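Morning F.,

Quick status update on the modeling queue. The single chain you submitted on Monday has been processed. Sequence for confirmation:
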Amino acid sequence: MSKSRLKLTYNSPVILTFSVICLATLLIDMMTQGGSNRLLFVCYGHANLLDPLTYLRMFSYVFGHASFAHFAGNITMLLLVGPIVEEHYGSWNTVIMMAVTALAGGLLNMFFFDTGILGASGLVFLMIILSAFTSMKKGEIPLTLILIAAIYLGQEIYSGIAVNDNISHFGHLCGGVSGIGFGIAFHKKKFNG
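Structure tokens below.
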């Protein structure tokens, strides 16, 4: 009788790799006393379109975090729901959805706001919404999907209007709306009953 051995698996390559990059980015930022974030990982509002780094920052801001607490909050949630999303939609589609959401958030922030955005919060909310779609069956809309979207979007809209807390509620909304859009696109046949 042979004993089976447990082995460690890299079960969610996109989410795990993203998390490792975020951790490395945080450590480098700590070593540079915030310099690397300011240079590479903050997408600035009304940015200079002649600066080549502007185009990198439209994507790279999702890797940067302001503190370990900021990093831990985002990555804990990402590690919780991201593997479900990656397994359901596939690694390549997950990369595409993350990149499109990052770019949409970066562009909208750049053109409509005068603040900088930093962190993976928008991607976390993309994953939260997409994870609610994973239990969808043909002709049915899960009540959990409706509740998550309503509570989340309602809270972010309220917070964006009424609360001054230095959090990019717009980035969260962008992630949530992207999640709804991608979820509908991937599950459109199921909506036809």
